[in-house]
Design a protein that fits this description.
By secondary structure, the protein is mostly helical. It has six helices and two strands, in the order H-E-H-H-H-H-E-H. It has one domain.
Amino acid sequence: MKKLILSLCLLAGISFAVSAQKFAMVDMEYIMKNIPAYETANEQLNQVSKKWQSEVEAQMQEVQTMYKNYQTELVFLSEDMKTKREEEIVAKEKAAQELKRKYFGADGELFKKRESLMKPIQDDVYTAIQEISKEKDIELVFDKSSSMNVIFTSPKLDISDVVLEKLGFSK
């Protein structure tokens, strides 16, 4: 009997604590699309990415050309010449792979460029969300654009427009 009463009291306390919490939702995609600096930074990243991708593709094309030429001249080459050409092809391919890693690797130039362009914008958005959360006494803010588990959100919980207004980008 004591366990039942204790369990009921505990359950009531937990349900009261949960109901007292305030939640909100933001749509980071929507917010970012409405910030002109984000769109500009995104366009810069796309241009740089295309430029670097064409450089890498040009080097890979050169490797393929060298290999095709090697294949056609194979019967006319001495063993030393074959070895030398193979080494040249392998070295050129390694250089192309290294260039690709340098530009697009985990710590590559594109990652660094994205971080330098996007991080200040994201920091401003997160700061605005924190300030709004403190003002409205919100304890938990979800990002509905990145969560696959959110099935439905009430529009009254969405503070995305409030965040945009706080950043000076009202609709």
